[in-house]
Specification:
Blueprint (H helix, E strand, L loop, with lengths): L8 H10 L3 H19 L8 E3 L7 H8 L5 E2 L12 H8 L9 E2 L7 E2 L9 H7 L19 H18 L8 E5 L7 H7 L4 E6 L2 H21 L1 H10 L16 H4 L8 H17 L5 E4 H7 L1 H11 L7 H5 L9 H4 L4 H20 L5
Parallel strand pairs: 1-5, 1-6, 2-5, 6-7
Antiparallel strand pairs: 3-4
């Protein structure tokens, strides 16, 4: 997420206008269809790639690497605030565009962004069509029975728009590229209604992953207290992972597992990791589970393996793509406090995934 402290008064006013109601975004999308439909109507919405996992698993880095390939189209920061009408907004805002300096994103993790950096904005669409999935206690899972014909049509049309906008010279063969951590709640839905999609799920070592989640939660608690607009911004774009807005995905068993635990403690996030990946492992036949540490350690070979699994040609750019990855941090000061039973469950689950990758000859 971008740091929003630099938003001008006009930027904030425009944001509030765009997100005053989902109806405004949907009306903009309808107007876009009428005016620019010929630009994207005949583009196939086939073989999209969904990058998803718990936050802090390396999803942004994988998105940044794949976005360097010309065959993919994804959301950029410049699509804000009219995310549902990206072609219309691109045309209407073109004259007002100004170069923006590169900034570190709000996570404070060293990732630099500007207006042309890829970002996760797709959640805005899911919330508009399935508002009842978002409850005070968390985000419910989607199932194969959650059909919504209007939403499916809108999503596929939206994929075409992004491909047309970002892959203008090769649009007929371009592929929509999504990074959305909340899509781990929609594995069954995507598998059923988008059968040509590939779902990539990076997996990070559980204790360090949980520690990183805890640190980001604390980071955003402080940010939300300092800047009320950041709360509004993250709520509007559906980033509910951390801070004052934290709402977990309600994986099977997590309601009981989190009882007596606080998001301000490491055990809560280890329990969340276990619930998430027990669920995802049960769906692994539909997923491309990838070791994030393997991508960082294996570099070009690991990236080549990922490209092969996605059926994409890296076009002689393996070293460039591999250069994006860097070793994740360890947090021994936090992980030392993990409850023994949670530690054992998490490490056992991760070890079984590693064994599966090794049998398949994949980097770990």
């Amino acid at each position: 997420m971008a740091k929003v402290g630099h938003y001008s008064s006009l930027d904030r006013l425009l944001h509030r206008l765009a997100f005053a109601s989902p109806a405004i975004q949907l009306m903009a999308a309808d107007f876009e269809d009428a005016i620019y439909g010929s630009m994207f109507r005949d583009i196939p919405s086939s073989r999209p790639v969904f990058i998803t996992s718990l936050p802090r698993a390396g999803t942004t880095i994988i998105l940044s690497a794949l976005n360097r390939l010309p065959g993919f189209g994804t959301h950029l920061y410049r699509d804000m605030p009219f995310v549902m009408a990206p072609v219309l907004w691109s045309r209407r805002s073109q004259r007002a565009r100004k170069p923006t300096p590169t900034r570190e994103r709000s996570h404070g993790d060293g990732i630099q962004i500007d207006i042309d950096s890829p970002e996760a904005f797709e959640e805005i669409i899911w919330r508009a069509f399935w508002p009842d999935k978002y409850t005070d206690t968390g985000i419910q899972l989607w199932t194969g029975q959650d059909a919504h014909p209007d939403a499916l049509e809108f999503l596929n049309n939206h994929f075409r728009k992004i491909v047309a906008l970002r892959c203008a010279d090769r649009a007929p063969v371009g592929r929509y590229l999504s990074k959305n951590n909340a899509n781990i709640a929609r594995v069954d839905f995507i598998t059923r209604y988008m059968p040509q999609a590939t779902i990539v799920v990076p997996v990070r070592r559980p204790l360090d992953h949980a520690a990183s989640l805890l640190l980001q939660h604390r980071n955003f608690l402080a940010l939300h207290q300092q800047d009320p607009f950041s709360v509004r911004y993250m709520a509007d774009i559906g980033h509910l992972e951390f801070g004052a807005l934290h709402r977990p995905i309600l994986f099977p068993g997590f309601g009981e597992a989190r009882r007596g635990l606080s998001p301000d403690g490491i055990d809560y996030w280890v329990a969340y990791w276990i619930a998430a990946f027990e669920y995802l492992v049960s769906k692994q036949s539909c997923l491309e589970l990838v070791s994030y540490e393997g991508l960082c350690h294996g570099k070009a070979d690991a990236v080549a393996d990922l490209c092969r699994r996605l059926q994409i040609d890296p076009e002689g750019r393996l070293e460039e793509l591999a250069s994006v990855f860097r070793q994740p941090k360890t947090h021994t000061d936090l992980t030392a406090a993990v409850a023994p039973e949670l530690r054992a469950r998490a490490e056992s689950l991760y070890a079984s995934m590693c064994a599966g990758w090794q049998r398949a000859g994949q980097p770990t």
